[in-house]
Amino acid sequence: MYCIPKELDLSKAIGEFTTQICIGKYDFQFSLGKVHFTVESPITLLRGGDLVATWKEGTWPESGFIEIFNVPVTKALIASDEKIIIFFENSLEMHLVDNSDQFESMQISIEGEPETWII
After folding, report:
1. What is the 3-state secondary structure (H, E, C) of the chain?
2. Do 68 and 37 meet the contact criterion of CB atoms below 8 Å apart?
3. Can you give the CATH number for the domain in which 85 is found?
4. Rounded to the nearest 5°, which phi and psi values hold at 56?
5. Assigned domain for 54 exists
6. What integer pLDDT is reported at residue 101 of this predicted model?
7. How many domains does one find in the chain?
């Protein structure tokens, strides 16, 4: 597990929204303004604790992911060294999880910053 570093600052995503997602066989890519995500681990969307949609490698994302389009982010939380939660204005929560001890789970790059965060 590469772990999510505490110093990862996702504040540039606040107030931003995504207009498209890109799906590969093994990854789910999206941007929130200047913050770009490539995720290879499962993604869960929740609202009020209820499951809205999931994605995992080798599958097409469930239709609930359309609800993240054009909806501003209100908060981006490093919940633990294994989980990032992105909160949207429409009460959706996107849970990104570092779930592998051997392989990368995600990469996060922020425009204007020199490094890409490998998690």
Report:
1. CCCCCCCCCCHHHCCCCECCEEECCCCEEEEECCEEEEECCCEEEEECCEEEEEECCCCCCCHHHHHHECCCEEEEEEEECCEEEEEECCCEEEEEECCCCCCCCEEEEECCCCCEEEC
2. no
3. 3.20.190
4. -145, 160
5. yes
6. 76
7. 1
Residue 41 lies in a domain: yes
Structural domain contains residue 108: yes
How far apart are alpha carbons 116 and 39 in whole angstroms? 13
Q: What pLDDT score was predicted for residue 102?
A: 76
pLDDT tens across 5-35, in order? 989 999 999 999 999 999 999 999 999 999 9
pLDDT, mean of residues 51-77: 97
> Residue 77 sits in which domain range?
11-118
In a domain, 3, yes or no: no
pLDDT tier for residue 103 given thresholds of 50, 70 and 90: confident
